[in-house]
Design goal:
Layout lengths: L8 H22 L12 H22 L4 H32 L7 H12 L24 H17 L5 H17 L12 H19 L9 H19 L8 H19 L6 H36 L4 H38 L12
Length: about 375
């Protein structure tokens, strides 16, 4: 059976750029900044579509070869959870430190519950504002997307066992209809259910796009396809970078989710890059997930220290510090903890249960 696993450096490039936009979006939101990157929350839908495309490339043949549900889900947990542990330790210790200083009235039992649920990436519906409620992951708000990602992974495995590719279109179509009617959400208890169609549409759109284009392999796009990629990439940058008061209306957000994000993914997958751009893309791809999952916990400590020293907050100064500190911290977390832990746990799991068609790229 042919091996459909490939590496898509241009997808890494856009994933990394989008992760930095998310960072700016959250910092200006948390610090009540001037409104930079107010639409960068839509990067979440791009991430889900990217995930569907790349996982279809990495696992479709292994599913056909008989990969079991435990094998698949353990491989996904090995990929995603080590840095979740790091993030939870950082943010949990921050909340605990504030409590010991008397700055927050946090009950020990609630903090222990939040830490426990964060460590296993399970939503916490009853979190108080003292520890970050009503966010479903009060110790690390962006982590809600990891829970949604794992939900989509599970759903995709189960639907793939039915061996009817048309089901992918049904799931995507129903999810898109639900989005059009009710909007997006998923990060708080009040919007929890809106996160499910959000992740299912974009993830299954990525899977569908891979199945439609897999026979073309890595053949480079023709001139028209490259022009479409450049246009979609430019629209991504403009969309994410628009400052207030340019918050996109819902019809345009839906157009990004339904059309532009998938078009960007499918065209980027067949754009070849070389030389320095390739090196930048691989670096951005490597640190995109650490930056995404660690930026809130690291920001909490940095912002707390800044307030202790200067008795105030400052968006420009703190954003500049974070843009320097976070990539360095992300690289350290990746090299010192994440990659070694994934290597050890992957080796252990393979000895216990050899995975069909094991990938050569760590954590594919």
């Amino acid at each position: 059976m042919p091996d459909s696993r490939r590496y898509y450096p241009t997808l890494d490039l856009i994933r990394g750029i989008a992760a930095f936009f998310v960072l700016v979006y959250h910092v200006q939101h948390w610090l009540l900044g001037p409104g930079y990157a107010v639409n960068a929350g839509l990067a979440v839908d791009l991430f889900f579509c990217l995930s569907g495309f790349v996982l279809a490339s990495a696992y479709a043949d292994r599913f056909a070869a008989g990969m079991t549900l435990p094998d698949f889900m353990i491989s996904r947990l090995i990929r995603l959870m080590p840095l979740v542990v790091v993030a939870t330790v950082i943010s949990g210790s921050y909340i605990w430190a504030r409590t010991l200083q008397g700055r927050d009235a946090t009950f020990g039992a609630e903090l222990v519950t939040a830490i426990t649920l964060n460590l296993i990436s399970v939503p916490f519906f009853g979190a108080s504002p003292a520890i970050g409620g009503p966010q479903l992951f009060p110790l690390n708000g962006p982590q809600y997307t990891i829970w949604l990602e794992l939900f989509a992974n599970l759903a995709w495995y189960l639907t793939s066992r039915l061996r009817w590719r048309g089901l992918n279109y049904v799931v995507a179509g129903v999810s898109l209809a639900y989005l059009a009617l009710f909007g997006i959400g998923g990060d708080t208890a009040g919007t929890f259910w809106l996160g499910l169609p959000r992740v299912l549409y974009s993830f299954y759109a990525g899977v569908i796009l891979f199945t439609l284009t897999e026979h073309r392999g890595t053949v480079e796009l023709a001139a028209f396809g490259k022009a479409v990629f450049r246009a979609c990439f430019a629209l991504m940058v403009v969309t994410f970078a628009l400052p207030l008061p340019y918050l996109m209306p819902w019809p345009l957000e839906l157009a990004w989710i339904a059309l532009l994000s998938p078009a960007l993914v499918v065209t980027a997958a067949r754009v070849r890059i070389t030389g320095r751009t390739f090196l930048i893309a691989t670096w951005l791809g490597a640190i995109s997930y650490p930056i995404y999952i660690l930026h809130y916990p690291i920001f909490c400590w940095m912002n707390g220290a800044y307030q202790i020293v200067f008795k105030t907050t400052n968006f420009m100064a703190e954003a500049a510090i974070l843009l320097i500190v976070l990539p360095l911290a992300s690289m350290m977390a990746l090299r010192i903890f994440d990659e070694p832990v994934r290597a050890v746990t992957t080796a252990w799991w393979r000895r216990l249960r050899p995975l069909p068609g094991t990938p050569t790229r760590l954590g594919a």
